[in-house]
Specification:
alpha+beta, about 20% helix, about 45% strand
Length: about 300
């Protein structure tokens, strides 16, 4: 074989060997764990606006503004060896006041779930990786008919809750910040004539909880306000029938028609009352809006 041809064969072999080398796969799947952003030293400060309804108090509606600071201060292991992030919640009434610890709770990622345990209630806050419109039972670890006391009044706060991701990876303006990637979690949106349960949370990627809004309200206002009309209506019918010696079904129908014209119909009263905004007709419960104002 000629030397030149031999040289060509060597070069071809080296190129072939080089092309057969396995390249390192640098792809790293994004499971979305940083929507919770759990690390020691992490803190977020919130401005919190609260409205509390107390039918037995001197003032039936009480408004307040406070500040929360939630800081991950340590880690510990649970009985199964899972890492829990100890989180302390501080509170103060004004920006110049000293912070006071008001609560300690834990956060963790266990398997494919983001877990927050607060007041002995274990919430499934997130399923990883997050998917838009994914839904799960966030209160699966406790009875969601549990009674919660607010201003001395009892409420089924978590009645009908079911978590659902309504927005994912969208930009959002929250407080004074604009975040490029936000996950919106709807925990509840249930309404009847006497109860309203609404809760949403927004998580900014790489930061954590950026916004929370909850309306946990009960009312009997419409029943109470309209009861007088129903009573008058029923009394009118009774008086009308009492004047008829031997009343028939036709007489009862005529009395109902006559009384319906004289007194405001109970159902119409209920309809008008039910159309009122919940912040006007609520009698017990609370409205909370928690907005991020600082983070590291």
């Amino acid at each position: 074989m000629r030397p030149f041809h031999f040289f060509i064969l060597i070069i071809f072999g080296l190129v072939l060997m080089q092309s057969c080398k396995t390249e390192e796969d640098t792809y790293s799947p994004d499971f979305g764990f940083d929507y919770l952003e759990l690390r020691v030293g992490k803190y977020i400060v919130y401005e919190v606006d609260s409205t509390i309804y107390d039918p037995t108090g001197d003032t039936s509606v009480f408004f307040s503004k406070t500040f929360f600071k939630e800081e991950i201060t340590d880690t510990l292991l649970d009985n199964n060896g899972e890492i829990l992030y100890r989180t302390e919640r501080f509170e103060r009434k004004a920006e110049g006041d000293p912070w006071q610890v008001t609560k300690v709770f834990t956060q963790s990622v266990q398997g494919s779930q983001g877990i927050i345990t607060e007041d002995n209630l274990r919430f499934v806050k997130m399923n990883f990786p997050p998917r838009k419109f994914a839904s799960w039972d966030g209160t699966v670890h406790f009875d969601n008919s549990i009674i919660v006391s607010v201003a001395g009044e009892s409420l089924e706060m978590f009645k009908g809750w079911r978590s659902r991701i309504t927005e994912l990876g969208e930009p959002d303006s929250i407080g004074n910040f604009v975040f490029d990637n936000v996950l919106t979690l709807r925990e509840a949106d249930n309404e009847s004539n006497i109860e309203y349960r609404y809760s949403i949370e927004k998580y900014a990627k790489g930061i954590g909880l950026a916004y929370r809004e909850r309306w946990i309200l009960d009312t009997q206002k419409c029943q109470e306000d309209c009861q007088v009309f129903e009573n008058n209506f029923n009394d009118c019918i009774a008086d009308c029938i009492a004047l008829i010696p031997s009343p028939t079904q036709a007489d009862s129908t005529q009395c109902e028609s006559q009384c319906g014209g004289e007194f405001l119909d109970f159902n119409l009263c209920q309809e008008n009352c039910n159309a009122l905004p919940w912040d006007e007709k609520a009698q017990k419960g609370f409205i909370l809006k928690q907005t991020i104002i600082e983070f590291n």
